Amino acid sequence: MEPFSQSEVIRVSRNYRPAGFSMNTMEAYHSYYGIGFRIKGESIISTLDKNFFVHDGDVILISNELYHKSTYTSQSDVEGIRIQFTNDLMEKLFTCFDKQTILNLFDRVVIHISDQGKDNIKTILHAMYREYTDNSGKTYKDTTLWCLLQLFFINVLTYQISGQNTIQSTDIFQPVLTQALAYIEQNYRNDPSLKDTADAVSVSPGYLSRLFTKTFGISYSCYLNKIKINQAKYLLIRTNMPIIDISLECGFSSQNYFCYAFKNETGCSPLQYRKQHM
């Protein structure tokens, strides 16, 4: 998931997935929020402690720190519309709507919508997609997208179906894993070892290692490396920091090792990545 460039605040895309597709690991957006609308098909969104079942016409809201994974359960291809927008734009939303009301929507993850609301929301999101992909150089493109985003939330709040979503607990050791993820987020600059993190959450290194592999499908060290590389991507795009300073800020022991790890993860050097996203 690529970070936003300096000039971007919102992205809109059509989303197509083949039947049976599944994300390899759980991921979190960190630097942006996500909205989805399911046009066709069914899936399960798994978080650290719950499964959410998604059907045609459902709205999906993914907060910036929510670790999640999607598994598509339909017998045919799945189609949807996806919006991603920056944390700064979320703060702007809080000036237009009650902050806790919006946060409560995102806490639900999947919102079921009445039939009338589904048509309204689908129309709004299609309009956002057309506006976003229009390359004719319209002067008020960003303003139009911002107004449509507000209209989207007005319709979700108006046409949401109250009551509990279809949720099934996954019983995924949540307190320990949540604490470990929080520790990594706060300490990745110090390159915490598996033992450091295990000690911080009062479990054995072996137990925590198995927990990461079972939940994310990758080792602890691979997960930590992804966190550091993602932060490096953000700094490369959003700041003018020298490469050596970024390597130290993201917990790498040297610039050479940082460049090696970055290219191994992304297929290009940090400098090439910066130039590509200027």
3D architecture notes:
By secondary structure, the chain is of the alpha+beta class. It folds into two domains: 10-168, Sandwich (Jelly Rolls), CATH 2.60.120.280; 174-276, Arc Repressor Mutant, subunit A. 48% of the residues lie in helices and 17% in strands. It contains eleven helices and nine strands. It has helices at 87-94, 99-108, 115-133, 141-159, 174-187, 194-200, 205-216, 220-238, 243-249, 255-266, 270-276, and strands at residues 10-17, 32-40, 43-46, 50-54, 59-62, 69-72, 78-86, 110-111, 167-169. The chain has a five-stranded antiparallel sheet with strand order 1-7-2-5-8. A hairpin with a 3-residue loop joins strand 3 and strand 4 (50-54). Helix 6 (194-200) crosses helix 7 (205-216). The longest helix has 19 residues, at 115-133. The chain is globular, with a radius of gyration of 20 Å.
Q: Briefly, what is this?
A:
With 278 residues, the protein is an alpha+beta fold.
Highlighted features:
five-stranded antiparallel β-sheet; 48% helix; 2 domains; Arc Repressor Mutant, subunit A; Jelly Rolls; alpha+beta; 17% strand; 278 residues; 11 helices; four-stranded antiparallel β-sheet
